[in-house]
UniProtKB/TrEMBL annotation:
The keyword Oxidoreductase applies. Keywords: Metal-binding, Oxidoreductase, Zinc. SUPFAM superfamilies: GroES-like (SSF50129), NAD(P)-binding Rossmann-fold domains (SSF51735). It comes from the Bacteria. This is Alcohol dehydrogenase catalytic domain-containing protein. It comes from Neobacillus pocheonensis.
């Protein structure tokens, strides 16, 4: 099969790659759509991912496709199913997993990070990590299920009221998802801090009341701040 293979820092090559084969509890997905996450960009530039990356490897953890082969022990999905995936594979036995903190798993594996991902024609995925998608959902939409899941997880931790003044730092894709969720809560106001001029029109259309340059963000009051950048400079803002 053809795949975009990370060979090293800032080195990606489209090349012939070995066709995958499933273990008894795995499936083979014919990839129909794969997103490029900020994590993929970090890995490309030589920074850590959610776990240690060992090139050569096929990146891509935001993916969707059709199951074309199933392992002998798989029963929850079948050949022909249209699926999206959860890329994180937890050991289930370490202290963190056993104390409901699987995101800190001592033996974390991740599709497209520690094992080949979706930037190839086919991808091996544990059947337990596959989620069937409705027929009316496109594969492009299904590839966005993973980042939306991250946003929904964070959103559950936020307490909003009709009086809440919300500041969203970062108007990229994650910030745009948060913006749409917050808008549905009928809060007092939504400010988005975003320096890119070409994003402002979209952010207003998605529900922002004010889009501001980050240089002036400190002049605005906010009851709730949602950080969607992940940069060290942003973490240090007061």
């Amino acid at each position: 099969m053809k795949a975009a293979v990370l060979q090293g820092t800032k080195q990606v090559e489209v090349m012939d790659w070995q066709n995958p084969s499933p273990s008894p509890d795995e499936v083979i997905i014919k990839v129909k759509s794969c997103g490029i996450c900020g994590t993929d960009q970090h890995i490309y530039h030589g920074h850590p991912g959610s776990a240690e990356v060992q090139p050569p490897i096929v990146l891509g953890h935001e993916l969707a496709g059709e199951i074309v082969e199933v392992g002998a022990e798989v029963s929850n999905v079948q050949k022909g199913d249209r699926v999206s995936i959860d890329p994180n594979i937890y050991c289930g036995t370490c202290t963190y997993c056993r104390s409901n903190r699987a995101h800190l798993c001592s033996h974390l594996q991740a599709i497209g990070v520690t094992r080949d991902g979706g930037m190839g024609e086919y991808c091996t995925v544990p059947a337990a990590n596959c989620y069937k998608i409705p027929n009316q959902m496109t594969y492009e939409e299904a590839a966005l299920v993973e980042p939306l899941g991250c946003v929904l997880h964070g959103f559950k931790k936020i307490h909003l009221s009709p009086l809440s003044k919300v500041l969203i730092i970062g108007g990229g894709f994650i910030g745009q998802l948060f913006l749409q969720l917050v808008k549905q809560q009928n809060v007092h106001s939504i400010l988005v801090s975003e320096p890119a001029e070409n994003k402002k029109c979209l952010l207003y259309n998605l529900g922002a009341d004010v889009v501001i340059d980050p240089m002036y963000a400190s002049k605005y009051e906010a009851d709730v701040v949602i950080e969607c950048v992940g940069g060290r400079k942003v973490w240090n803002l007061q």
